[in-house]
Specification:
The chain contains seven helices and 23 strands. With 424 residues, the protein is of the alpha+beta class. It is globular and about 65 Å long. It folds into two domains: 199 residues, Jelly Rolls; 187 residues, SGNH hydrolase (Rossmann fold, 3-Layer(aba) Sandwich), CATH 3.40.50.
């Protein structure tokens, strides 16, 4: 189902004739269906005063845009401009909220610090945290939530974020702005001003200059516990590869995709199993089923470093690895599986000349994984052996690596995939 839907989107998404971006050439100025400057609220809570088309928010107030502002839930745009008078760490902001159970959408932000503050998008009850909150005190922050023929895209400060290849299931709820749920991980941002907010209907689609449906590089499709990045267009009958892992897979991923250009379409699932109990079989089966994969590369990565002998037995670790193999095979029965052995844990600081104190756990997990993969008939690419004598290529944070190391990883995986794909 997910594959068929994605292919339909890739083939049918039209190029917009008009952009909402003020600097782009447009046939005419788009007319909003609803405008904060003049149109009535569906409801309000707390103190809401509209002055010169602007609304001051205090963290406890909220207003609702009528559901009628979105006549077509598969194609609309919400554009906002906000000035934050004060942003502190551990603040929380509810931008949009039109959720009812597993329908509708929402966007919220958690301000942890300058780095690592998530901007979360919720679609049909599933949260997709693949973006970062980029706002600062006393600067105008621009946010756009663009839904184009079923795809959902977010923009901050004229920069595109992720695109989600997921149709919003509509409901009759109004769209709330500023309605903040109580959270233990942050208090509501209490002092910000909404300078403008407009909702546009299906006659206009938002794209940045130079951007269109044809230039989309990739998008995400997902469900409970999984989110797979998919290539933007499927134009040739090429093999399909899914690579699964943590931030190490993010490091080598684009390099690997470039090496496989015109050889295969590459899909990416950033994920890891952090506990030896409660394996999410359904998530693995679903993620492996988004395309007819020919190859699946997987590794549970350095997030397994908590699996010390006092916290995880050999049998428990083997069970996790075996469950991964079997779930991937259930979701993608024709795919050849490749286990990418976990890279070394290294000492902190630069230059790196030694292993880290948790490296014995890496060796233990790799040893158990090699045993399981041999029993399950899974190919292995030994990334540990590839980098153990190249510690000077480590990033110095104990876990990650330099671009040269990621290029070596990408090359090793490409070589294995080339061999598999040339002998189907």
């Amino acid at each position: 189902m997910a594959l068929l839907f994605f292919q339909a989107l890739a083939a049918e998404l039209p190029v917009s004739q008009t952009r909402l971006e003020s600097g782009a050439a447009a046939a005419k100025e788009p007319v909003p269906v609803w405008d904060l400057a003049k149109d009535a609220f569906a409801a309000t809570t707390g103190k809401i005063e509209r002055v010169d088309g602007r609304v001051q928010m205090d963290g406890n107030s909220a207003f609702a845009i009528p559901n009628s502002a979105i006549p077509d839930p598969s194609c609309f745009t919400i554009a906002m401009e906000i000035r934050f008078h004060a942003i502190e760490q551990r603040d929380h902001l509810q931008l949009l909220d039109q959720r009812v159970s597993d329908t509708g959408f929402a966007v919220d932000a958690l301000n942890f610090s300058a780095v690592g503050s998530p901007l979360n998008t919720v679609i049909n009850g599933i949260g997709y945290g693949r973006n970062s909150f980029r706002a600062s005190t006393n600067q105008v922050w621009q946010f756009v939530f663009a839904v184009r023929d079923g795809t959902v895209a977010v923009y901050q400060n004229k920069s595109p974020g992720p695109t989600y290849l997921l149709r919003i299931t509509p409901n009759l709820s109004p769209i709330w702005v500023g309605r903040t749920a109580h959270r233990k991980d942050g208090k509501p941002i209490a002092n910000y001003e909404i300078l403008g907010l407009k909702v546009f209907g299906p006659d206009y689609k938002y794209y940045q200059p130079g951007e269109s449906a044809d230039t989309q590089k990739n998008g995400y499709v997902g469900g409970n516990g999984w989110l797979v990045r998919m290539p933007g267009k499927i134009e040739k009958p090429l093999p399909r590869i899914l690579y699964y892992g943590d931030s190490i897979s993010m490091g080598y991923g684009d390099r690997f995709t470039a090496l496989m250009k015109d050889k295969a379409y590459c899909y990416h699932w950033v994920h890891f199993v952090g506990s030896v109990g409660g394996f999410q079989t359904n998530a693995f089966v679903a993620a492996a089923g988004v395309a007819p994969f020919d190859v699946i590369i997987f590794n549970n990565g350095l997030h397994s470093l908590s699996w010390s002998p006092d916290k995880a037995t050999d049998a428990q670790i083997e069970a996790v690895l075996r469950n991964m193999v079997r779930a991937f095979r259930q979701g993608a029965p024709k795919a050849k599986l490749i286990w990418a052995a976990t890279t070394p844990h290294t000492a902190k600081g630069k230059p790196v000349t030694s292993f880290g104190d948790l490296n014995p756990i890496v060796i233990r997990i790799n040893t158990l994984a090699e045993k399981v993969m041999k029993e399950e008939g899974v190919d292995v690419v030994d990334l540990y052996a590839l980098l153990k004598d190249r510690l000077h290529l480590a990033a110095g944070d104990q876990y990650h690596w330099s671009g040269d190391a990621y290029q070596l990883i990408a090359g090793a995986l490409q070589e294995k995939c080339d061999t598999i794909l040339s002998h189907p």
